[in-house]
Amino acid sequence: MAAGAGLKRVLLISSDVIGPAMAGPGIRDYHLALELARRFDVTVMAPAGSVPAADHPRLIEAEPDRYRQIKEIRQAFDVVIAERLEVRAMLHLARTRTRTIYDLYVPIMTEQLNAHGAAPAGRDARRRYQLACLLQAIAALTGDSLVCASERQRDFWLGVLAGGGRVDLELHRRDPTLRSLIDTVPFGIEARPPEHERRVVKGVVPGISATDRVLLWGGGIWDWLDPLTPIRAVARLGETRRDVKLFFLGSTSPSPGSRETTMRRHAVALSRELGVLNRSVFFNEDWVGYEDRQSFLLEADLGVSAHTDSVEARFAFRTRLLDCLWAGLPIVCTRGDVLGDLVAERVLGRTVAPGDVDGWARAIAELLDDRRGYAHTQANIRTAREAFFWPAVVSRLADMVERSFTRGRVTPAVRALTLRYFSLRAEAALARSARGHR
């Protein structure tokens, strides 16, 4: 870790566990901290169960009352970086000289629409969605600076910021690009190449031979994704060939309190119904450790990711696809999101329309059976992935820590959002109390 007098003191607050088994937010925060520590004095605050690595900046455990904890240690830091915090903590920081940078790489306002499912939402589900959106909106309007994962996301957030009064003539006069207010910091990949440390799938998983062609779904089966279409495509391919196997890498997230998703249950049920469970479609029951994933990636022949046609997909940044780029793994994915568009533009694999089972089956077969095309795709991936190496990705965030001059404030718009937030919290508490007395 960098050290010395005069370095900016940065506190990076992670909402997710950091350690051997990490989901996306923890992975991102781990690498942001590592890269920022090359230029600043970095401390990480993370939930209980997090494990500091030998090469990682110092780590402190987040307490249940994080608002009190932040108030007590805030003066020890020049900059606080977080996805979002408890509302009182965000309001407190907005009134201090400690600068805040909020990481909006997951737009809750669109992602959570799919997370609550297609069924008519009850009052509790609507409240949970509204509370999550209000929390992120307050972060956007009180943060001194903000980052997101793509230029498309940045357009979305600029609309939110303009509607909330953050875009004004004075800011534009000083910075016509508005990048001091919000800039892009994509998810990244390691610059070192992955290593195959041991056999993990081929010839190891019962039902998958050493010569089979493995399609890797490289993450959790979240409710806003579409594992059902690839499952149907693999079942269709199985009518004429036996060598194509779909392996789902992720199960329940390692994040505290995580449970099996509805979509994972649907995926297992469909596989059983089609007669392909543990024959052509396989579900890993555990969450693969962060370092272990490289062996799975290097044994796979294709990376796959699918989603439905929704507004979530429009603004999503499918981080699981970046691991495919890291491993030089050609991709078949649904078109419509930013990385899906990159796959199509740079010929990093094949993209398919949402829900197109025939298109999926055709794309899989084309990539697997065309050796020359497969090699060409791998060459394209080697060129494209350099832009996502973590040092390049984090450089804009480091510049923002060093030079940003915007200031968030507790404006009337923020006060209105805060009032609505605590009103909904009170409604939710009353509803829980009423159910408890029945």
Q: Can you walk through the features of this model?
A:
- This protein has 438 residues and is α/β, with parallel strands linked by helices.
- It folds into two domains: 9-188 and 391-436, Glycogen Phosphorylase B (Rossmann fold, 3-Layer(aba) Sandwich), CATH 3.40.50.2000; 213-388, Rossmann fold, CATH 3.40.50.2000.
- It is 44% helix and 13% strand.
- It contains 17 helices and 13 strands.
- The protein has helices at residues 24-36, 66-73, 87-94, 108-115, 123-142, 151-163, 169-174, 228-237, 262-273, 293-299, 311-315, 319-326, 338-345, 357-369, 371-384, 390-403, 412-436; strands spanning 9-13, 41-46, 58-61, 79-82, 99-103, 145-148, 182-184, 213-217, 244-248, 281-283, 302-305, 331-334, 349-352.
- It has a seven-stranded parallel β-sheet, with helices on both faces. It has a six-stranded parallel β-sheet with strand order 10-9-8-11-12-13, sandwiched between helices.
- Helix 9 links the parallel strand 9 (244-248) and strand 10.
- Helix 5 runs antiparallel to helix 17 and helix 8 (228-237) runs parallel beside helix 9.
- The longest helix has 25 residues, at 412-436.
- The chain starts with 8 loop residues before the first strand and ends with a helix.
- 42% of the residues are buried.
- Residues 1-5 have low confidence and may be disordered.
Question: What characteristics describe this protein?
Answer:
single chain; 438 residues; alpha/beta; Rossmann fold; seven-stranded parallel sheet; six-stranded parallel sheet; 17 helices
